[in-house]
Structure formats: structure tokens, C-alpha cells
TrEMBL record:
Biased amino acid composition, Basic residues: 235-255
Pfam families assigned to the protein according to its UniProt record, in alphabetical order: Ets
Protein name from the UniProt record: ETS-related transcription factor Elf-3
InterPro entries: Ets_dom, ETS_fam, SAM/pointed_sf, WH-like_DNA-bd_sf, WH_DNA-bd_sf
Length: 365
DNA sequence: TCCCAGTTTCCTGTTT
DNA sequence: GAAACAGGAAACTGGG
């Protein structure tokens, strides 16, 4: 039916030569007179009770006119090299084919951009692009999050493949795929590459965390000096403070995400908020660690550092007090606050509180 | 080469 | 007493 509408009705009633308002009128006339059945099939009322006119269908049909997902050339290219057609085709494959979203809910025309532009979009920018006046905001946000995640999974995979080609003997955090993280035994799947997006430089630390306690080359005392006396042999290996020497320099990569950005990303991600971290007072940027060790573990996972603890992580957080990126919240334990120089943490749904319609239609969440 | 920002580790002391 | 917090110190990295 959709195909029929796209190929016939749309072409007939929505001539490209006509100005948009006229075409919308035509479509409404068409809908009222003849095509209620079609309209009902495109937007089943039980799923979209808020849809009361044909404009939604109209706008999306318009989108289809501009959009021809015929190409699959994106499959053999890196995101960076996609042209606008390939970007749109990938969006279709990702959102519709793979994740089963309704094709009429995706404003494809907003995604007629190059892969280079797409990969530089932030999560909220993707959300903005996905928003459409005639599509439910929560639905758009859900699609956008899916698209964003899949995009960064793909980018991660591209980097991983390049990394394997360049350093086949080395294992980096990028070996963590999008469906589970090697060595991470938790219910949480930190597959949101936004959390890792710019963390490529983190793999410079990979050697850091591979120091074996028995390694003669690493027999440093706690004061950082070499020592080989009996006491040190008895004591378990104690890593000296700071980053050990010997990290291999590689290609220049973007600087890692900072601790405040990492926290912000967790708080804006439904998979982590409110299960392990949540907003205490979103208007003030206050948040609470629900499972501080899990957050630290995620940070360590991202940094390829199995030794990360909340104690160390919180020290990194406290470092940001001095620049007012974070501010302390006295008296409240495990509660911190973004400062005036902190990252943008705006969201219209802190802690992902279910809206009424979602509660009434749990199958749609 | 130097400096700075950011991070990690260790540590001591304080507060809850 | 344990956990959380605060912050100094040192060592390191990447970037300007």
C-alpha cells in the first residue's frame, strides 16, 4: 500500500511542479474523498491516535519523492566517503530494515548530507534532524538514538579494522564490538560509542595496563625508583603513580572525552540513566551515582584500564572543581553537580521518565 | 622544547 | 570502622 501510494497516488496528486501548500491541499482532498482506507493503513489509529490529518502522510510521501534508497554502495565505503544518497540509503537500512521503524516517521530529506557531515553530528543534532512537526517527538528521539548508536558502531568498526591492519598484534579497546564488550561482565553494555567516540587516544594506554607484576622491566617501587630488594619481592606489585613510560605513539587521534563529558553522556543515555547514574536535580545539573563502581568500571573500560575504581575516578572528577566544570555538593554523598563551565546537559526528559502514552502502550517502548 | 590541560595513581587526613 | 570525600604530589600524555 505504501509502495502504491509512493508510486501512484503521490506522483499523481503531488506533482513536483506544484507548490507545496497546493499539494498538501490536494492530498487532504484526496484523503477525505477517496483514500481514508489507505491513510488508515499507513497510520493505524491504535498506534498513532494523535494523527488527525493527512499532513503527516503527505510530508513523508514528499520525503519519499526525494529519496531513492536504491544504492547500496555505502556498504563498501567508509562513512567518511558517503555522498548524500548513500547517507540516506544507510539511514533507511539502519532505521527501517534493521530496526523496524516506520519509514514514514523518518524525515529522510534532513539526512541528505555527506557521510563526513553525518559522522560529525552529535547525538542531539541527530535528534534535531529527526524531529518532524508531524511525528511524535519521543518516537523521533528513539529513532535518532538508534541511528546515532548504529552510526558510531560502524565508525568504531571502521577504526578497529584500520587498527587491526596497522597494528595486527595489538588489542585495543576498539576490539569491543557493538554488542558486548570483551571482558566486561555486566548487564550494562557500554556500546554507546559516543562514550568512546573521541577516546581513540585512550588506546595509547594499552601498554600501560599490560604491565605484568613479574616483569623485570617494571620493577618500580612506590617511589618510582627502580628497586630489587627483598622487600619488594615480597610485596605485591605496586604500580607507580601516573602513566608508565613506554606507551607507543601512533597516529594522531582525537583527544579522549573528558570525565564531565563522559558523565553527561551517561546521564543522557537511557541504558545508564537512571540505572547506574541519575539526575538528582536536572535544572541545577545535579546528579547522583546509583552504582558508582559500575560507572568507574565503564570509565575504565573505555580507557582500557581494568584497575579503575570509583576512588580514582572521583579524583579525576575533583580535578574539575578548580575550573568549575564540576562543583561539589556538600553534605550529599555520591551527588555531584555540573558547574557553570560544565558540558551542555540539556534534555527534555531527564531520567527517561515514561510519558503517559508510553505507559499506555508499553509494547511501543 | 616548553608549557599546560587532563588523567592516573598513591597517599594522608577529614567527614559522614 | 567503613565509605566517601578532599586535595597534594608525582608521573605521564597530547596538543599548542
Amino acid at each position: 500500500m505504501i509502495e502504491y501510494a509512493r508510486q501512484n497516488m503521490c506522483d499523481f496528486y503531488l506533482s513536483p511542479a506544484q507548490p507545496a501548500p497546493a499539494r498538501l491541499d490536494d492530498f487532504n482532498v484526496f484523503k477525505k474523498g477517496n483514500a481514508t482506507f489507505t491513510y488508515g493503513n499507513l497510520y493505524p489509529y491504535e498506534m498513532y491516535p494523535e494523527v488527525e490529518d493527512a499532513s503527516n502522510v503527505y510530508y513523508n510521501l514528499i520525503n519519499f519523492r526525494d529519496y531513492r534508497p536504491e544504492t547500496d554502495s555505502w556498504k563498501s565505503k567508509v562513512v567518511e566517503d558517503w555522498n548524500s544518497d548513500e547517507t540516506v540509503a544507510w539511514i533507511y537500512d539502519c532505521a527501517i530494515t534493521t530496526h523496524g521503524f516506520n519509514e514514514l516517521d523518518v524525515p529522510f530529506h534532513n539526512f541528505r548530507i555527506s557521510g563526513h557531515e553525518l559522522k560529525n553530528k552529535r547525538r542531539e543534532e541527530i535528534v534535531d534532524m529527526m524531529l518532524h512537526p508531524h511525528v511524535d517527538n519521543e518516537m523521533s528521539r528513539r529513532i535518532a538514538y538508534t541511528v546515532f548508536d548504529r552510526l558510531h558502531c560502524r565508525l568504531s568498526e571502521e577504526i578497529r579494522q584500520q587498527s587491526v591492519l596497522r597494528y595486527p598484534e595489538q588489542q585495543t579497546f576498539l576490539d569491543l564490538d557493538c554488542h558486548g564488550n570483551r571482558g566486561y561482565h555486566s548487564d550494562y553494555k557500554p556500546n554507546d560509542i559516543s562514550l568512546m567516540s573521541a577516546a581513540d587516544s585512550g588506546d595509547d594506554h594499552e601498554d600501560v595496563f599490560r604491565i605484568e607484576p613479574a616483569s623485570p622491566a617494571c620493577s618500580y617501587g612506590s617511589d618510582g625508583s627502580k628497586s630489587g630488594d627483598e622487600d619488594d619481592k615480597k610485596k605485591p606489585f605496586k604500580r607507580p603513580p601516573g602513566r608508565p613510560k613506554g606507551s607507543i605513539k601512533k597516529d594522531k587521534r582525537p583527544r579522549s572525552v573528558s570525565v564531565p563529558q563522559f558523565l553527561r553522556d551517561l546521564l543522557l543515555d537511557e541504558r545508564f540513566c537512571p540505572s547506574i547514574i541519575k539526575w538528582e536535580d536536572h535544572s541545577q545539573g545535579k546528579f547522583r551515582f546509583v552504582k558508582p563502581d559500575e560507572v568507574a568500571k565503564l570509565w575504565g573500560q573505555m580507557k582500557q584500564n581494568d584497575n579503575m575504581t570509583f576512588e580514582k575516578f572521583s579524583r579525576a572528577m575533583r580535578y574539575h572543581y578548580q575550573h568549575m566544570v564540576l562543583v561539589s555538593v556538600p553534605t550529599a554523598r555520591l551527588v555531584y553537580q555540573f558547574g557553570p563551565k560544565g558540558p551542555d546537559f540539556k534534555t527534555n526528559n531527564p531520567n527517561f521518565v515514561k510519558v503517559k502514552s508510553e505507559l499506555e502502550n508499553p509494547s511501543y517502548s
